[in-house]
């Protein structure tokens, strides 16, 4: 294997010191002659030397690097969230380090601790598996800025980007009631995060506001995934629900398949509403009615907020709540339309 070209190789080829090379390559070589600068740049180009990030940090100010911790990069929701982050960081010449930790608490804490040791400038935390204790021991203790998203509940968060999830749950129920449904089920995950509990609160408040009693028998807990939606279909079929509010679109899409395999049709047999408004909503049959939340903007706003904090450490606490809206498509049906 060919050895990696180092800054020492460039210095030797340019017949100068490592310090001189480092200063010139970091844009701080004005004090050197034009001839020396040209020799260093020529040697770098000829050898194909790529400056090492950590070596660069020894001379002058390094580029900003932020850590991003998410629970499932394969979920279209988080793909859009990360896209928003990347679009902002690219504009500012910032390097985002993105880690998918699932529901693994030990993995989330591992990345948080290791990135802190590597002097990452700040964090965007979007995984509920991050322990409060580790955040206190690493970020809060060392004054490292971070932004927590709405599903990551941290008691001492420096800044936060929230979504009005209670309103989202309420909107879903209001719409289904207007369509004539009174037996409305909700599918929730077995592991509940702060934002999902807010959606459930909206579900309950929506029922009460419309004069419908909350029935815990219509709340179905399952795995937070398409598979979870698929397997919960059997239990829903045993209930008298006519409409189902799913905690997110992934679960709703899994439920589609579970009901179809049981010979049921959407929306003829069941009206279904999802949550998130991921791209897939428009490519399933029938297209999924859902609650839209601005996921991409959540990513851009989190990044803007983190950069504000990095540049102004003593600024006041930042908290921003994004709005939601109902997107009506083809997976819901008015009870007045008949069978």
Q: Return the domain count.
A: 3
Strand order of the largest sheet: 2-1-3-4-5-11
User: Low-confidence segments, ≥5 residues, pLDDT <50?
Assistant: 57-61
CA distance, first residue to last residue: 70 Å
Give the overall shape, derived from the CA principal axes: elongated
Helix/strand class: alpha/beta
Helix content: 40-55%
CATH topology of the largest domain: Rossmann fold
CATH class of the largest domain: Alpha Beta
Q: What do we call the CATH homologous superfamily of the largest domain?
A: Response regulator
The biggest sheet, with number of strands, parallel, antiparallel or mixed sense and barrel status, is: 6 strands, parallel
Q: Name the beta content range.
A: 15-25%
SSE order, as H and E? HHHHEHEHEHEEHEHEHEHEEHEE
The CATH architecture of the largest domain is 3-Layer(aba) Sandwich
Mean pLDDT: 89
Number of helices in the DSSP assignment? 12
Can you describe this structure?
This protein is an alpha/beta fold. It has three domains: 7-56, 434 Repressor (Amino-terminal Domain); 65-164 and 295-323, 3-Layer(aba) Sandwich (Rossmann fold), CATH 3.40.50.2300; 165-293 and 326-337, Response regulator (Rossmann fold, 3-Layer(aba) Sandwich). It has twelve helices and twelve strands. The chain has a six-stranded parallel sheet with strand order 2-1-3-4-5-11, with helices on both faces. Strands 7-6-8-9-10-12 form a six-stranded mixed sheet, sandwiched between helices. Strand 6, helix 9 and strand 7 (219-222) form a beta-alpha-beta unit. The longest helix is centred in the last third of the chain and has 17 residues, at 295-311. The model is unreliable at 57-61 (pLDDT under 50).
